[in-house]
Write a structure and sequence with these properties.
heterotrimer, A alpha+beta (97), B alpha/beta (392), C alpha/beta (182), B: alpha/beta, Rossmann fold, six-stranded mixed β-sheet, 13 helices, C: 182 residues, 6 helices, 7 strands, binds iron/sulfur cluster
């Protein structure tokens, strides 16, 4: 049997293929396919926010104490934050399973 | 009151764009389109048209700027030709898919090499499949009328597609002839203000032109194909209303003396008028010859063409391009597909004429008809023949 | 329908002349066409332009191959190009020349109807320049009456603004001095 892998119909696709709801990238759980995760060592962290600036998925947010923490729903494990952290406070550790 | 004036066709087109109140005109000059955009830049500089004229650095930039301004909701016009149109090509695919109703007048010209600034249809046939609605003008009046019609149809929400109006370079663009320029009120009544269904607006953000993954792309393209096919109804209706407003009638396929015609010439663009004179001459000599002219090239008006020419015994189709290595020219191929295996349909013979400014004269049409008659009795080896080519 | 072929040199204003005649005819309510020979424009090189004037809608866009009228702006052109090529039997060639009819016929081998005027001399005297495009329109009017003088002068006014007066003067002098020889 032929497989139809289409996820929209040509009659129901949006006008001009536009994306009509702004900010809907939040719906995409890019964290699904991560193989490594960043772990912040609060001993070394100086709360400079470089990880927050450089994360391409905007996964970081600040907690009440001013430390930065990545949301694992969105972190895709690219390691940019670890590379950019001036204090080497971030370590990439393997995801298990 | 409409004014009847003796004016160069390019200038008249610029005046039509002014009457249509284009708001953004990104353009790059190229022969033989130059007079159109030159005159428009003067009109804008003189304050006669409240528009942004963007003198871009290339045609690629021109079409990119067109996409931006149309997406932001501005009535957008540009014009190009030949190599310039080809430089636009990468961007030309985008506005039809994104439903941006840009109007583009193309002064048709040959492609290099050898370098040629003269008229044929190579430039537009290369862009045949970009998804633009395409019409062909036969004279200066039609160039003006089809430009106005283009704005009206393009911006209709049921269509919302870009339109190319083809005018033959030099043989139309540089000719002085009588043209009736309609008055502003009539044009305003015919072309309502542009109210796009969606536009780029920071108060209500949307994204245009996202990625189409394999699970989406086919559906997006089928939707696009359906939209341009369905646009024919709106195109025809807008011509009907044009006739009511301005008194000049237009149809997707036009005929000339085709009643009882056994052989019909098929043309597109400005050679059609010369073809009419040739038909008159052959009719006077007792030959049953007629003429069918394709005005709407995309979407192709299949049923209309069949109705206009289906009763002919022979169609002599003239292509103004010679696609190297192809079985025949694009118009010939289209008509062969249209009539394929339909019982009683006409025999189709393709001819290539008028390349790179070679004059297509009354005598050439007579020669084509003679050849078509001969081929009707004895099938030629090739599917097309180049007319008026010298061997040694 | 009357068909005109105009011979000039690049930069002499031949295309402008053709345009003015067509515009005058259209203003008169007739149908007309004017177009250049679409070549690369090189100053000084022989160029042609074409005019058609008709009471009915013009339905052809081929170049003019069998003219009723040939208008030659430059005195040297008849020895460079075959100005009478394709001329109809009752056609006329209008020349800018200081030669007499006999001399013209002998020198250029022209057997057709002729009209002659020394337009270069008139242009230098009236306009101060050897540019004969508007001057030769006077000869065209005298020899053929293809358009009315008043409509042609209106077209000149619109085209040339304040220098139109001089051009109209040159045109009038050419009109008066043109000799038509059957
Ligand atoms: S970049 Fe490093 S030091 Fe700076 S806030 Fe992030 S974890 Fe802390
Ligand atoms: S690993 Fe990449 S995606 Fe994850 S938090 Fe760091 S920068 Fe962001």
């Amino acid at each position: 049997m032929a497989v139809n892998d289409a996820i929209v119909g040509w009659k129901t696709i949006t006008w001009g293929c536009h994306v009509l709801e702004p900010g809907n990238s939040a719906e995409f759980r890019t964290g699904d396919w991560r193989s490594q995760r960043p772990v912040v060592d609060k001993e070394k962290c100086i709360k400079c926010g470089m990880c927050w600036i450089f994360c391409p998925d905007m996964a970081y947010s600040q907690d009440d104490e001013g430390y930065y923490e990545a949301d694992m729903e969105y972190c895709k494990g690219c390691g940019i934050c670890a590379h950019e952290c001036p204090k080497d406070a971030i370590t990439m550790v393997a995801e298990e399973g | 009151m409409a004014r009847r004036v003796g004016v160069e066709v390019s200038i008249a087109i610029a005046e039509a764009v002014k009457l249509a109140k284009a708001e953004v005109i990104p353009a790059y000059p190229i022969t033989p389109q130059t007079h159109i955009v030159e005159h428009l830049s003067e009109i804008v500089a003189n304050g006669e048209l409240d528009a942004e004229f963007i003198p871009v650095e290339s045609e690629h930039a021109a079409m990119s700027a067109c996409c931006g301004s149309s997406a932001a909701g501005a009535r957008t016009f540009t014009s190009s030709s030949s190599q310039g149109l080809s430089l636009m090509s990468e961007v030309l695919y985008i506005p039809p898919a994104m439903r941006l109703p840009i109007v583009n007048v193309v002064a048709n010209r040959a492609m290099s090499a050898p370098i040629s600034i003269w008229n044929d249809h190579q430039d537009i046939m290369v862009q045949r499949d970009t998804g633009w609605i395409q019409t062909f003008a036969e004279n200066g009046q039609e160039a003006v009328d089809l430009t106005l019609h283009a704005f009206r149809v393009a911006e209709d929400r049921r269509v919302s597609l870009p339109i190319i109006v083809n005018i033959d370079g030099f043989t139309l663009s540089h000719v002085i002839e009588p043209i009736e320029l309609p008055d502003q009120e009539a044009v305003d009544a015919y072309i309502p203000p542009f109210k796009p269904r969606y536009k780029l607006d920071p108060r209500k953000p949307i994204s245009m032109g996202p990625v189409g993954i394999p699970e989406v792309y086919t559906e997006a393209k089928v939707a696009q194909d359906n939209i341009i096919k369905n646009s024919k109804k709106v195109i025809v209706k807008a011509w009907k209303e044009f006739a009511e407003q301005f008194g000049r009638e237009y149809n997707p396929v036009e005929t000339y003396r085709t009643d009882d015609a056994e052989i019909m010439l098929v043309t597109m663009g400005s050679i059609s008028e010369t073809a009419m004179t040739a038909v008159d001459k052959m009719r006077d000599a007792g030959q049953k010859v007629g003429l069918v002219r394709i005005r709407l090239w995309r979407p192709f008006p299949g049923p209309e063409f069949r109705k206009a020419a289906g009763k002919a015994k022979v169609l002599a189709v003239i292509d103004r391009t010679l696609p190297p290595g192809a079985l025949c020219g694009p118009v010939g191929a289209e008509l062969r597909s249209l009539f394929y295996k339909i019982p009683g349909s006409p025999k189709i013979f393709s001819f290539v004429a008028g390349l790179g400014g070679r004059d297509v004269t009354v005598a050439r049409f007579e020669e084509i008809v003679e050849k078509a008659k001969k081929y009707a009795k004895k099938r030629p080896k090739e599917l097309y023949e180049v007319i008026g080519v010298r061997e040694k | 329908m009357k068909e005109v072929r105009l011979h000039g040199r690049g930069g002499q204003g031949g295309v402008t002349s053709a345009e003015l005649v067509a515009i005058a005819a259209i203003d008169e309510g007739k149908y007309a066409q004017a177009f250049p020979s679409f070549g690369p424009e090189r100053r000084g090189a022989p160029v042609a332009a074409f005019i058609r004037v008709s009471d009915e809608k013009i339905r052809t866009r081929e170049k003019v191959y069998t003219p009723d009228i040939v208008l030659v702006l430059d005195p040297a052109l008849p020895s460079l190009v075959d100005v009478a090529a394709g001329l109809r039997d009752d056609g006329i060639v209008i020349l800018n020349t200081h030669l007499t009819e006999a001399e013209v016929r002998k020198e250029f081998g022209l057997k057709c109807k002729l009209a002659m005027v020394d337009a270069t001399k008139i242009a230098i005297e009236v306009l101060g320049l050897p540019i004969t495009n508007t001057t030769m329109l006077g000869a065209l009017l005298k020899a053929t009456g293809i358009v009315s003088q008043s409509h042609l002068e209106e077209a000149l006014d619109r085209r040339f603004g304040r220098i139109a007066e001089k051009n109209k003067k040159a045109l009038q002098r050419a009109f008066d001095e043109t000799v038509v020889a059957a």
